[in-house]
Design goal:
The complex is a heterodimer of chains A (319) and B (132). With 319 residues, chain A is α/β, with parallel strands linked by helices. Chain A contains ten helices and nine strands. The N and C termini of chain B lie far apart (42 Å). The interface between A and B is medium-sized, with 24 and 31 residues.
Chain lengths: 319, 132
Amino acid sequence: MYAEKGKHVITSLAEHKAVLDTCKHLEKQGLEVTYLEPTKAGGITLEMVRAALRPDTILVALMWANNEVGTLNPVREIGALCHEKGVLFFSDATQAVGKVPVDVEADHVDLSVPVGPQDLRPQGRRLLYVRRKNPRVRLVAQMDGGGHERGMRSGTLNVPGIVGLGKACELARTELEQDAAHASELRDWFEGRIFAELDHVALNGDREHRLPGNSNLSFSYVEGESLIMGFKDLAVSSGSACTSASLEPSHVLRSMGVGDELAHSSIRFGFGRFTKREEIDFAVEQVVKAVRRLRELSPLYEMVKEGIDISKIQWQSGH
Amino acid sequence: MAYSDKVIDHYNNPRNVGSFDKTKSNVGTGVVGAPECGDVMKLQIEVEGDRIVDAKFKTFGCGSAIASSSLATEWIKGKTLDEALSIQNTQIVEELSLPPVKIHCSVLAEDAIKAAIHDYKTKHGPGVRRQT
């Protein structure tokens, strides 16, 4: 629908697969996609977007907050730039709603999938924001047959789902500050204890500009999947939960320049409004115990303790 | 990842964890895999005559990798070098009911056994006693 305006799309290597796979599909249809390389902290800067814009750019797709490392992008600035240049701006707000303020007007966002506050919304319900004016965003109908939802998605509406999602958004908005403060406090307490009790732990992401309830840590010399087996009472994910079916190390960490070795050792912890302080203490004990036990099992940790530089070893790979 | 009870048992109670002094002449050491692939196994054997009298391992890797190497040390203890060399990764797959995505763990364990034996034989030169 926008093909006559141009054929260039800008996104980032740290986006969710839902965006990256879609871009790959668009490339097959003849569009050109620029994949921005994020900073070491996993963010995209205004300057990167400015440098990548072309006269034929029709869309910029950059997430509000990264789903693995929680890094926040400067959405408002990027949105303003897009509007100045007449380019549509799509921002995936899946992680952001209910955790940081999201305002499609002030932030100049044209299209968004806010999904809804993840720990409040009815499971399986989601929403798509499509700007109606300045500029009006026109989409090809997902399905025809009655013209529901402004003609974009025909079909009888799911009233209980809509009401539930609306209520969840209302709660998320009115209690956002207090939820964010609670999540940050627990997260900081968690990280403080982990860093005090274990050596060779690295934080992935941006310590300052990140989601309040996100903590993505790499525990060197232990492998993520075996670590998760070690704390069976915790629900965490190695990489993103969405891609945990795959054995590949996280594409987000890779795009940030984190080596595969550390990417294999990363775990994402999440803290929300329902998390309690006692649970954090329990989690810390479980993590510390599992990491120590697996390091006793780890030939890499043994080598490091012996003073061997494992980055200089010629490993025989191929598996 | 759904693991078999045997994998979980080896993960929770790994057998023969530890290290031998790799400079000793009766010790063979095999280190296989690579950190960037997410698996590194170190398997060591202590040999008397042509028989493996003790074995130890350390593994960086997933639960299946830990279980495969733990099982490998159990199996090779008491075996002659040639008997140990005949262990196939498919036997490990079968014993631990490894899913297809974890077969490489069993391959690595087989490689680790072979590498440790190779190291031992290298230390002892071409004249090493061997059953043919």
